């Protein structure tokens, strides 16, 4: 995908046909057309224009690096003094989406991206792996060793998942901006995801430090060069956002294909070893590429699905903004993704009765940052919860852990608008209705699009814009309005050749044909 991607195409067909259109292979693009006022496509275009305004406001004009967040009035003086590889990646793919939806010209997009790539080429990296550190100063590009908010020490870390999202953006740029393909490719080629892969566990580590940090770390090196200091944990859950790093490593030939089957769909339900997890899974064992896999699933209010780790929307649905998982996995992801969305809707509208839905990590309306989710959709026992009171459900674990009475009610529910954008492909009517209701009923929309989160009980809103969350919204909008522009780089080439066959092999323990309830 070396040529320039296609121009704007209205999303009316996508929204009319729902999931069937969403999972169909891309068709040839039509010339730009004006969407009728008040139509779904016009609404999406407005959301895209405003969301892009917030992304652009986060960017330092000298370095082209997007800050982690900015205040709700988009004042440059209120930009955060730190950024990450994910933040930078979100800005890069958002710029491509903005070009394809007519929000910036091809020349403006090229200039913006060129500035960012030039800075990326100058940033300090871990030279043996080509990986980026987790925090930089967006105004200077300096690696942070002191946290700008409170002056505390930063122990420079190299995250597998954060580097995965930057590599994702570079892959998009390499395809979508041919004038800059060589520069993006040079940065990509030096990134070696094999540095994170532990062959003994068939899993990737969370990341590593170059110097030993306080707390737990393990000295070693899965590649060559001096020892680094790995996190003591692996990313062991399958349906979580770190799988993007796994896919990139497999596609590049840096990680063996059997890694795809080395993480847990759920844990083995036999015995009580995993009784700390959310529930005892149902399913059966299967073997792929010599790896024995328990194809486990959870049951939730008439649905059956493969859980994420904590139960949040972005864990499950950020990756398919780029990788066509449901096309390549007709007996796995094609069934699971829609079921996961239905489960989030079920929780928000019926189980918790908030009247709104969509739960994912975000800024806390009460201050700070917090994870939100539906705890019953996560493997972790406590899970991520949907309200400020952390109300959870404990269905028990057979004879190992007795079930607890269900909660009498839920507290202050916090809904995160970016979760609805993640659901747009799988439940377009529901997603647009939910967003419209949030905008109608709360002060949830500002000059840069939807604010980060809404306490739907008190009406309190977190009036900040986060690069990650706005970047997810922009990716979903770009795909809807410009015919999967951000998916096309991954629908061919090494990702298609090496990762798609693995997805085609697998069958989740889910109802055949996708029929649930």
UniProtKB/TrEMBL annotation:
Q: Keyword Signal, does the record have it?
A: yes
Pfam families linked to this entry: DUF3131 (PF11329), Glycoamylase (PF10091)
Q: Where would I find the DUF3131 domain in this sequence?
A: 46-192
What residue stretch is flagged as signal peptide?
A: 1-29
Q: What is this protein called?
A: Uncharacterized protein
Q: Does the keyword Signal apply?
A: yes
What is the phylogenetic placement of the source species in the record?
Answer: Bacteria, Bacillati, Actinomycetota, Actinomycetes, Micromonosporales
The source's domain of life comes to Bacteria
Q: Gene3D superfamilies recorded for this chain?
A: 1.50.10.140
Q: Which of UniProt's keywords are assigned here?
A: Signal
Residue stretches making up the Glycoamylase-like domain: 296-491
